[in-house]
Amino acid sequence: MLLLSAALFAGVVAVSATGFGRAVPDPAYAFLQEQPYAAGEPVTWRPCEPIRYEVNPAHASGSDDEAVARVQDAVAEVAEASGFRFRYVGTTARRPADADQLAPGPAPPVLVAWARADEVEDLAGEVAGIGGSVSREQDRWSWYVTGRVVLDADAVDDADDERATLLHELGHVLGLDHVDSRRELMHAQSAGQEDFGPGDLEGLARLGKGTQACS
Ligand SMILES: [Zn+2]
After folding, report:
1. CA of 21 to the centre of ligand 1 (A)
2. In terms of residue numbers, what domain contains 141?
3. Where in the sequence is the signal peptide annotated (predicted)?
4. How far is the CA of 186 from the centre of ligand 1 (A)?
5. pLDDT tens for residues 123-155?
6. Ligand 1: distance of its center to the CA of 28 in Å?
7. CA-CA distance, 193 to 100, in Å (whole number)?
């Protein structure tokens, strides 16, 4: 059982985009960003390439190997729900602030890290984690090319809570926004929901389908 917690999830998209949320009632899902030249189409990852990710286990509970394994388990669930392939590239010393600016050239892997509010301001208050991705536009189509998940090392204190937070933030990384329904894990507030709900799963599958062939 996930203990009821007052922790809030916060989604952060590290790009300057106009806010976009399309709530679809029952089952509920919403996308963080819409394609600028294709109304209704979500911004997400290229379905034909694996989403590379790395883990900085500093501040996580347990050993580094255990922290990495917990992330890999959560990623496997998101991969299955979405159809996206992920590739773990190893541990890193990269910190969340290093992921704020996207330099020209190849984008770095998605960073999964633990931090405290004195390092990552967005974790202040009752925030359990943040997650989001950065897009690049090519040929009038936007793709996410990197992203980050940061778990609050102080607020996430048991394994079930951590797992639910990881799944939620990875949902943001793929392109899901918050929804009002408390049946969904993409609800903004942790309310005892442990697993993806029906809308979450439909939204993830929709994101993973992709509507543009990769070139
Ligand atoms: Zn959130």
Report:
1. 13
2. 8-202
3. 1-17
4. 6
5. 998 899 999 999 999 889 999 999 999 999 988
6. 14
7. 30
- The answer to whether the beta carbons of residues 96 and 131 sit under 8 Å apart is no
- Rounded to 10 deg, the angle between the 159-174 and 198-209 helix axes is 40
CATH of the domain at 55: 3.40.390.10
CA 185–ligand 1 middle distance (angstroms): 9
192 Cα: distance to centroid of ligand 1 (angstroms): 15
Q: Which pLDDT score, from 0 to 100, does residue 19 have?
A: 40
Report CA(54)–ligand 1 centroid distance (Å): 20
State the CB neighbour count (10 A cutoff) for residue 45.
Answer: 26
Give me the number of domains the chain comprises: 1
62-110: pLDDT as tens digits: 999 999 999 999 999 999 999 999 999 999 999 998 766 677 888 999 9
